Amino acid sequence: MEQESGDLDSLVRKRLRALRVAQGWSLEELATRANLSQSSLSRIENGQRRLALDQLVTLARALDTTLDQLVETAADDVVTSPMIDGAHGLMRWPVKSDPGMSVVRQRMVEPPPDNPSRMRAHPGREWLVVLSGTAILMLGHRRLRLETNQAAEFPTMMPHAIGAEGGPCEIIGIFDRDARRGHQRDTPGVGD
């Protein structure tokens, strides 16, 4: 147990330094943001000062992260295989850090519905990116054309539908818990 505690201590110190460097901040800049002295921060990063919980909370806030993210240990199960729904052309991956989130890959061949009554509206948010082809996103009364590598993010309370234009397209969609539930009710296979 002592070994694990020492490993976690070292990991947190490395993360603090890496996050500071990634922001492009000097010790002085982060110390000012966290209301610490520069020497205290240096000793924390170098393992010469004890990690105190109140200082970690303050540092996490200053670095725009959470205490949980600072102290989480590496997961052994890094790789996730998709759940495949061949009947609907879907692959779905759960997001382990947020079980309510799902990532879905879908191949579309049909255009979006012409009839506005066939558009969905439900609680949640969606984000999607077009991997190949051209997608049409119907969003309320708007018709948005999304080319390969373009993305869209929208609240799903807005009536919406998506389809292909001029041939097949593939998209990746990220659904929060509410959006996934809305698609589970509306379309068998989406977000299951």
UniProtKB/TrEMBL annotation:
Keyword Ribosomal protein included in the entry's annotation:
no
PROSITE patterns hit by this protein? HTH_CROC1 (PS50943)
Q: Which Gene3D superfamilies match?
A: Jelly Rolls, lambda repressor-like DNA-binding domains
Q: Which SMART domains match?
A: HTH_XRE (SM00530)
> Is DNA-binding there in the keyword field?
yes
For this protein, the record's Pfam families field holds: Cupin_2 (PF07883), HTH_3 (PF01381)
Residue ranges annotated for the HTH cro/C1-type domain, each copy included: 16-70
Keywords assigned by UniProt?
DNA-binding
InterPro entries with a match to the protein in the record: Cro/C1-type_HTH (IPR001387), Cupin_2 (IPR013096), Lambda_DNA-bd_dom_sf (IPR010982), RmlC-like_jellyroll (IPR014710), RmlC_Cupin_sf (IPR011051), TransReg_Diox_bact_type (IPR050807)
Q: What is this protein called?
A: Transcriptional regulator
> Which organism is this protein's natural source?
Microbispora amethystogenes
